């Protein structure tokens, strides 16, 4: 197997076992596991929690909490009832139900005005109505924020050494720096077609060279080399939308660029301080081949806030939200007005976290809200005790007792800090989990849904979705209960859940991410290509509450990411990421989507919803 940066190795290896599926399992029957499943989704929507240790009398009002803010753009008009489910497909196309169509909005390398180009490998997508700051909900004129997680050097920078053994030129590194980060894309519907608005002043690129501010205790700290400003964002995977209409973009596999840590000699290293590893440059994107422009590893691995409505605004990295391989940012507002952000570390045996702000949200003061993520407290989830453990340097002696110097040190070294052993339980303060991907907060009940894509280290090959319920239905609570909500497998029809999204009818959309090298083979043979699925949420006369239904299938070796509806629910934006990912020779691509030649990641607009 060719050596590749770990973001690609992870995708290839995390689900790559060759085991034959059992005979006789119904692919379409929805599994209820530990008394939960699609029926529990309907029950949760109506205020009844099924199979949970606490909170059996959930209220629809959820403690009068404001549920604004999300990981995408909710919408939908009884979506699950409006289409005939498709069957698994191996076609090299975006396959949709009858009556639906897609059109490409932007593809990798497309011009965006001036010297700007649309980046590579688009991921998280958010739709903002153009009149959102005035309280509007325009569903035909808006702004897309799109993450660009990483690049395929073979097609993006003409670097074709799949072993990573040869140096890159500065020009190749510069080209790749322009391919990550994110894009602000002005879009408008004309007739029945969505178009990119050329020449619009809102169009903007954020990349690995954009100056960023830093907030919170790590700003200016020794671990950050004294920096209060850093250069660029990269590895932008998932994200979220704040109630004040900014976007949070998450830096996930940042270790592939400048390493994960600075070692004792001041050089870039891998691993953590507690488990250091030497940096193997061939296993990175080789940006260190341009040493004059190399950046400290500690400047990455954060959640970045960006204002898509202000082209002159400066992005900020909020260190109170911790430094891990962030996959997502799910935002809600508590009954007292505090902002709560749930986030997960996407790696085997890593943790789930939440941040609670010190300040309170003021719907009428956007400027003040911009500072809400700059001060608060980070917690890590202890599932064994159902507790949120504050990563509080001043009030939890475990950090001082283990040599941490200050709160900034704890946050820069979040991964190590979450693994510290509780002297009472003799277990880590943060529970190791099965690769947390996306997290979503149910808009009615406030329950927290987390997609755990799998953990081959523990024999979990198909993944599951868990549901957490905060004590007294309060996002600020320091106790919670949880349950296994749904499990993947041939009997359910989906595997390796990744992105999640609730639409306005409480249907849960589930997007899968089976490794490209495993698609259509072994235990994954029945699923064929990756897809988008819907768990119906208590529909009247709609899809069966006992079924999960498939809405879309991705092209060959691609995954679908970043689902985002317009407010009226009539358009669904999806990112199609890394078609033809297993290509070894650019002249012989394994996928030719979307134009019949070179594979290109693209954002599509899907229409046909009633």
Write a structural description.
With about 600 residues, the protein is mainly β. About 10% of the residues lie in helices and about 30% in strands. The chain contains nine helices and 35 strands. The strands form nine sheets. The protein has a six-stranded mixed sheet, with no helix packed on it. Strands 4, 5, 6, 7 and 8 form a five-stranded antiparallel sheet that branches. A five-stranded antiparallel sheet has the order 18-19-21-22-23, with no helix packed on it. The protein is globular, with a radius of gyration of 22 Å. About 55% of the residues are buried.
In short:
The chain is mainly beta.
Notable characteristics:
six-stranded mixed sheet; 610 residues; 35 strands; mainly beta
Helix content range of the residues, please? under 10%
Strand order of the largest sheet: 10-9-17-16-12-11
Q: Please identify the structural class as seen in this structure.
A: mainly beta
Q: Which range does the strand content fall in?
A: 25-35%
Main sheet record: 6 strands, mixed
Overall strand count: 35
Distance between the termini: 46 Å
Shape: globular
Return the average pLDDT rounded to an integer.
Answer: 88
The parts where pLDDT drops under 50 for at least 5 residues are 13-68, 539-546
Radius of gyration using CA atoms only = 22 Å
- Count up the helices: 9
């Amino acid at each position: 197997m060719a050596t590749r940066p770990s973001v690609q190795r992870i995708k290839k290896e995390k689900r790559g076992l060759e085991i034959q599926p059992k005979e006789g399992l119904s692919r379409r029957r929805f599994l209820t596991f530990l008394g939960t499943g699609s029926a529990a989704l309907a029950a949760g929507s109506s205020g009844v929690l099924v199979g949970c240790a606490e909170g059996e009398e959930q209220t629809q009002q959820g403690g009068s909490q404001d549920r604004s803010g999300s990981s995408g753009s909710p919408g939908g008009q009884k979506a699950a009832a409006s289409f005939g489910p498709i069957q698994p497909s191996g076609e090299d196309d975006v396959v949709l139900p009858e009556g639906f169509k897609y059109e490409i909005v932007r593809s990798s390398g497309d011009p965006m005005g001036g010297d700007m180009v649309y980046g590579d490998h688009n991921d998280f997508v958010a739709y903002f109505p153009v009149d959102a700051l005035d309280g509007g909900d325009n569903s035909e004129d808006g702004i897309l924020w799109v993450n660009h997680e990483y690049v395929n050097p073979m097609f993006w920078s003409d670097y074709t050494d799949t072993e990573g053994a040869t140096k890159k030129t500065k020009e190749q590194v510069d080209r790749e720096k322009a391919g990550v980060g994110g894009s602000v894309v002005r879009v408008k519907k004309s007739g029945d077609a969505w178009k990119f608005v050329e020449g619009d002043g809102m169009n903007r690129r954020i990349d690995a060279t954009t100056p960023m501010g830093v907030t919170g205790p790590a700003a200016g700290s020794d671990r950050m080399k004294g920096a209060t400003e850093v250069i660029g964002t990269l590895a932008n995977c998932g994200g979220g939308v704040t109630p004040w209409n900014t976007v949070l973009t998450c830096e996930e596999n940042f270790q592939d660029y400048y390493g994960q840590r600075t070692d004792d000699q001041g050089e870039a290293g891998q691993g953590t301080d507690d488990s250091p590893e030497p940096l193997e440059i061939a296993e990175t994107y080789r940006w260190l081949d341009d040493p004059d422009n190399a950046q400290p590893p500690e400047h990455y691995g954060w959640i970045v806030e960006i204002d898509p409505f202000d082209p002159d605004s400066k992005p900020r990295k909020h260190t109170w939200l911790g430094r891990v391989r962030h996959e997502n940012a799910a935002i809600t507002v508590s009954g007292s007005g505090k902002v709560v952000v749930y986030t997960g570390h996407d790696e085997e045996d890593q943790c789930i976290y939440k941040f609670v702000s010190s300040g309170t949200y003021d719907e009428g003061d956007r400027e003040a809200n911009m500072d809400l993520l700059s001060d608060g407290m980070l917690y890590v989830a202890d599932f064994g005790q159902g507790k949120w453990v504050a990563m509080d340097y001043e009030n939890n002696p475990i950090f001082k007792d283990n040599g941490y110097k200050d709160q900034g040190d704890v946050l820069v070294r979040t991964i190590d800090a979450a693994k510290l052993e509780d002297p009472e339980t003799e277990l880590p303060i943060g529970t190791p989990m099965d690769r947390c991907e996306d997290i979503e907060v149910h808009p009615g009940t406030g329950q927290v849904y987390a997609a755990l894509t799998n953990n081959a280290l523990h024999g979990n090959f198909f993944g599951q979705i868990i549901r957490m319920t905060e004590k007294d239905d309060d996002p600020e609570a320091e106790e919670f209960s949880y349950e296994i909500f749904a499990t993947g497998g041939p009997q359910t029809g989906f595997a390796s859940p990744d992105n999640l999204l609730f639409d306005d009818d409480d249907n849960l959309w589930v997007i899968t991410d089976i490794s490209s090298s495993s698609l259509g083979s072994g235990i994954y043979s029945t699923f064929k290509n990756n897809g988008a699925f819907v768990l119906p949420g208590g529909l009247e006369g709609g899809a069966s509450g006992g079924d999960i239904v498939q809405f879309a299938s991705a092209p060959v070796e691609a995954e679908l990411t970043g689902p985002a509806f317009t407010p009226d629910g009539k358009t669904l934006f999806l990112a199609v990421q890394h078609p033809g990912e297993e290509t070894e020779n650019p002249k012989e691509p394994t996928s030719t989507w979307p134009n019949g030649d070179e594979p290109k990641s693209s954002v599509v607009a899907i229409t046909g919803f009633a």
